[in-house]
Structure formats: C-alpha cells, structure tokens
Amino acid sequence: MGAGIAQVAAQAGHSVVVFDRDDDALNRGRASIEKGVAALLKRGKIDAAEAAAMPARIVWTTSSYELKPAALVIEAIIEDPGVKADLFATLEGILSEGTVIATNTSSLSVTMLAATLKKPAQFLGLHFFNPAPIMKLVEIVSGAVTDKDIANAAYDLMTSWGKKAVHAKDVPGFIVNRVARPYYAEGWRAYEEQAASAATIDFLYRELAGFRMGPLELGDLIGHDINSAAAKSVYHAYYGRTRFTPSLAQDMLVQSGRLGRKSGAGVYSYADNAPSPAPIFADADDETVLSAELDGETIDLMTLIKSGDLSLERLAASPVNDGVVVNGVCFAFSDGKTAREHARSLGMPVVLFDWLADLSKTDVMAFAASCDSAAAIAAPFLKLLGKRSVRIKDRPGLIVLRTLAQLANCATDAVRDCVADGASIDVAMRAGVNYPFGPIEWAKQFGPDKLVDTLTNIADTTGEAIYWPNEVMKNLD
C-alpha cells in the first residue's frame, strides 16, 4: 500500500521519500513501482520521458531523518495502535513544525490515534483503497480536533492526484466499510436460508444488478478470516447494532480453515479438478399451453405478447394486486412481501420477480412462487418473453431487492449520523468498491415511498427491526 501511494504521488509530480526499517520491504516496494510504471507506459498513460522521471522522484531509505523536508507524511504500516503511536512520536521529533501527518488506517479511530500526538490538529486519515494506483477513492477522515483547513487542503490535494476524494466522519468503518456491510450480510443470509445455490446467488448479483462479483465469491477472494473479522469489528464498534450483524455461516468457514482462494477452498473449491460454479436454471416445459386474462377475457398468451398488450414493462409497472394473470397465476415484481402472503390475500397462486437493473439487458429473471404449480407456469411464461428463469426461495424481499434495500437503509443511516452527505456516500461506494450505482442514487430511482413500503413489508414479514426504514429514507426527495 505504501509503495502504491508513493507511485500516485510521484505520478502527480511530487518528490517522494519512502521510509521503511526493512531493506527487503523497500526492495519489494521499488519493484512494485517499476512494474506499475511499465504498465502505465504500455497502456499509453505516460510517455517514455515520464516513465523515466517517475522513479527518479522517489527516494528509498531506512533513515527516518530523510523525511524531515516533507510537507505531508502518510503512514501505511500495520494496524496496531501501539506501533503507530511509536512511529508518530519518532516523526514529531524529526518533522518540520507545519508538517501534516496522515494515517492510511482502514479500521482504527483517527481521533484515538491523534490523541498520542503533540499536534493532533495536524493529523487526519487518508484512507486509500488497494491497489492505490488503480482504485480512485480516498476517504478524507477528520478526527475530533483535525483542523478543517487541513482536511480541505487534503481534499484538494487528493483531487489533484486524480482521486475521487470524499470527506468522512471518524466512525468505525468510515463510509465504505460501514455502508457495505449489508452486501455481505444479506448474501450470507440468503446462503444460510438456502434461498438458492451459492453459485446462483452470486450469479444473480452479477446478472441482475451489475455487481462485478457476488458476495460469496468476493468473500472467497478477500479471505473469510479477513472479511469476517471486519464484520465483527464494525459490529462490536457500534455496540452490537444489528444492521451490522456478522454471519455465523462465514464464521463456520473460518473455523474449519476454509478461508477462500488462499486456502484452496471457501464457499467454492479451488482445486485443479474442481468444476466451475454454475447457476441453476428452472426447466421450461414447452408443452405448457399458456393464456392470460385481460379485461375479463382469456386470450392466448403469444397473441397478447405479439400485440404488445402484455410485456415485462407492464409487469414491472403493475402492483401485485393488479398483476398479470396467466393460467390463473398472478405475476408481479416483489414488494417485500412473500408470494405466499399475496396468494392468501388474492385467493390465487402468485409468482414474484426479483429486482433487476434493466429488462432489456439481461436474458435472466429470478422468481419465487407461492406453490410448485405456479412455478411450473413461470418458467414457460418467461421463456415466451425471451428470458431464462431462476427459481429462488419465497422469502421477504427475495435476494437482490432485499440486499439493495438494506444497502440504502445503511447509506441513509450514515447520512442521519452525519458520516457523510448522500452524494459523497454514492461516490464512495462506486469508486471504493466498484458498485454499479450508489445506494442513495438507487433508492431515489426505485422510489423512496415504494422503498419505504418494501422495507416495512420485509420488517413485518421477518419480524426483524433491522429492516425498518429510517427517518432519512422516509424523507428522501
């Protein structure tokens, strides 16, 4: 991380000093930057002259005294408060009077770290994301006494380095590691409740919502020991606030040594002969004869589709109590209640579809059915509409919708708690963890009133307060 930050600063034209007590660490950092510069040159991001100039701007040293001329020092050592405090004490004995010290911590309180310094007002967090030369986000974290002018200057500096800078309050997890918790928590909960196979769950996050990786495969990549520890850290730091509850299933993987790719197995196996994880699609019986009810008439389904009187767009716009009825089965998109709840209310079988970003850009839809006979109609119905289908468990909010709704809940929690403003949270989630959209942006597009109703339905049906929408959500414009 330190070498990556040094590369970013050098690429911005600064003279940089990299200090480490270990020569081997310095050599690894130097090699990392040489590789990074070569990659930039190959991609045409810099020319040959700049490729030669960048490494020349960096001094590598085991002597802390060479840091003395620095205007800004960024610490990127292990997440140990005592070790960091020792380093800061050394730095304050060397650095100039006006030098700003920043920590790259992702998990420790900036206020707590600043308390060990003689000049805590000149201390702040600059949280880069790994790999620093590639990831755009930097969270500017002000401690309780950080000088506002210094925080604003840091924001301007990071922006000049080509970063997406956001101001964040000094709270556990800052913005990203706090707001992202439901992405993992809801993915793990769907897995624990056997809402679908692991590969199907991950597939739906990618295919329906546009995430680069599903939460289970992402946990395998990060390492379940690291990911679970982060979840527990945030949970305990907030005194057990239930929106941040860690996963028991993930903890069991850690206890069994199945840490993910690095151990050869996690949710998935990474053995040489292991089959590639694949989603499970529903079978569509081509012999099924389908007809729809429209204005009191029963009409051949294909006739309605060809005429434009029946479409997925109409389905998406229709509430469940006015959904499309095919072969006596009501079809609609999820509103947070289960298909079984709606079936009891309507007096007919019900099929509910999970949320998806764009009906025209995916050939897959996920559905839950109130009964097997309804599910048997769903797959051929979707096939006629040009979609493959995935059957998932009938649960409140299904999978993708429930996750996005809870992400929006956590994001608006953060607005309420003055962690950051809504626009900064959206920037942070897109630039820090590559979300396809910001959670507050998504909430506004989905419809705040509709989302409040959806979350209320999930909370009522599950009986769990973690899903209750907060007051900021209820007042989104």
From TrEMBL:
Domain 3-hydroxyacyl-CoA dehydrogenase C-terminal: 173-270, 397-476
Organism superkingdom: Eukaryota
Residue ranges of every copy of the 3-hydroxybutyryl-CoA dehydrogenase reduced Rossmann-fold domain listed in the record: 333-396
Annotated 3-hydroxyacyl-CoA dehydrogenase NAD binding domain residues: 1-170
Entry-linked Gene3D superfamilies: 1.10.1040.50, N-(1-d-carboxylethyl)-l-norvaline Dehydrogenase, domain 2 (1.10.1040.10), NAD(P)-binding Rossmann-like Domain (3.40.50.720)
Keywords attached to this entry: Oxidoreductase
UniProt name for this protein: 3-hydroxyadipyl-CoA dehydrogenase
Species whose genome carries this gene: Durusdinium trenchii
